[in-house]
Amino acid sequence: MTLLVVLTVVAIAALIAELAIYLYIVGSQLDRVGAKLEGCGEVVWDIKRNAEPIESGLERINSTGRVVAGALPLLYGMAEGIVVGVTYEPAPDAEPVPVRPAMKRRRTRLNEAVGYTPEGM
């Protein structure tokens, strides 16, 4: 019975040691995450400070956007009219002409590069 009690105490001590190590590792990782979040928070506040001058002109930007958005249907209709008027349609009675080569015989220099000279060249 004493051996069983001693082994139980050792098992409990090992469990407590493992939990302490686990908590230490998790705590150090959380400290690193917290430091990085603090840096991110400073960047966010910098962005907010830089965006404050823009906020005053935002109403003018929005009104200009509304004007442009209101003109889009008119511009789209005008563009459709332009495209319909200039769409290319080939003449139906014209026959396609075959393409003629620019030169009669094509000569390759690859044979000469490797030291081969075929007959008749």
Overall morphology? flat
| Share of β-strand residues | under 5%
Largest sheet: none
Question: What is the averaged pLDDT score?
Answer: 83
Tell me how many strands there are: 0
Poorly predicted ranges (pLDDT <50, ≥5 residues)? none
Q: How many angstroms does the end-to-end distance come to? A: 106 Å
Continuous helix count: 3
- Estimated radius of gyration: 41 Å
Order of helices and strands: HHH
Into which percent range does the helicity of residues fall? over 70%
Helix/strand class: mainly alpha
Features:
121 residues, mainly alpha, 3 helices, 73% helix, 0% strand
Descriptive notes:
- The model has no long low-confidence stretch (mean pLDDT 83).
- The protein is 73% helix and 0% strand.
- The protein has a domain of 68 residues.
- By secondary structure, the chain is mostly helical.
Summarize the helices and strands and which ones pair or pack.
Layout: H1 2-56, H2 58-86, H3 110-113
